[in-house]
Amino acid sequence: MGSFAGKRGLIFGVANKNSIAWGIAQALAEEGAELGFSYAGAFLEKRVMPLAEQVGSRFVEECDVTDDGAIDELFEKVGDQFGNLDFLVHSIAFAPREDLGGRFVDTSREGFRVALDISCYSLVALAKRAVPLMPEGGSIMAMTYYGAEKVTPNYNVMGVAKAALEATVRYLAWDLGADQVRVNAISAGPIKTLASAGVSGFRKSLGYVGSVAPMGNVTQADVGNAARFLLGDWAQKVTGEVVYVDGGYNIMGAPDLDAVGG
Ligand code: NAD
Fold it and tell me: Is 211 part of a structural domain of the chain?
């Protein structure tokens, strides 16, 4: 029996088999978790349904996290059809493509608003609805990136959104500690996905990080493995943390110039 036998959780952010959320889902399913999925946009249904079937999920619902009414409806269905929750995974981000390249100073007001709404506020909106379904306590996890802390050219407004997301994790952890609900984030190294492909120069930065990090690049499965810990009982008093799954990239002060050809 896996360490998630008898545990039930909702996963937001599977778009296709390359999604980090899918790596997390597979790891939790291997541990015996019962999973529900929520995806954005009807066009993704044909991609998400077969994946959900692979892990025996009986709950797959569309929800655009910019729409409070849609989130309310979703959680009503979760309560009625899926039941109480032990964990929730937020693996969602979006910024207009034109704001993921060029100069940060050119970020539009609307691009900034959209990025922060979808990539950060949505965690608050989902946590608020999830907590009443976690009467025995639970664990909430979000995905972040090093660009929240240090300037990463082209990541631009998404770096600002991730900084806000990491602060949001800490404020939620404070609020929800009394409910025995933990809130943490994983800061993953770059991984080729639909979202990361939208960041200008992503391929080069994947290669660079791979050559600088002590353990090279990471995979969706690496993130899934860390999620087994953070979402499970072994992390019982771990809350408000950002855990790096980045092959050690964040500890480096300078690259090995021989390796990167500097
Ligand atoms: P992805 O494109 O597979 O996942 C992003 C998800 O966000 C998609 O499923 C998309 O449908 C969803 N989404 C976008 N707008 C939405 C909305 N309005 N409502 C609901 N869902 C919406 O890409 P990914 O790389 O797996 O991204 C998952 C998370 O991991 C994101 O938070 C991303 O910033 C983070 N992350 C990614 C990397 C990387 O290099 N890929 C590194 C660190 C952190």
Answer: yes
64-107 pLDDT, tens digit per residue, is 999 999 999 999 999 999 999 999 999 999 999 999 999 999 99
- Does any domain span residue 261? no
195 lines ligand 1 (CB under 6 A): yes
Q: For position 86, which CATH number holds?
A: 3.40.50.720
Question: For residue 254, is it within any domain?
Answer: no
DSSP string covering 6-49: T-EEEEE---STT-HHHHHHHHHHHTT-EEEEEESSGGGHHHHH
Asked whether residue 242 carries a pLDDT value surpassing 90, the answer given is: yes
Does residue 260 lie within any of the structural domains?
Answer: no
Sign of CA dihedral 175, 163, 15, 29: negative
Identify the domain containing residue 197 by its residue range.
Answer: 8-248
How remote is the CA of residue 19 from the centroid of ligand 1, in Å? 7
| Cα 262 to middle of ligand 1, angstroms | 32
Distance (Å) from CA 207 to ligand 1 centroid = 20
- The percent of residues above 90 in pLDDT, for the chain, comes to 95
Q: Is 9 in the pocket of ligand 1 (CB under 6 A)?
A: no
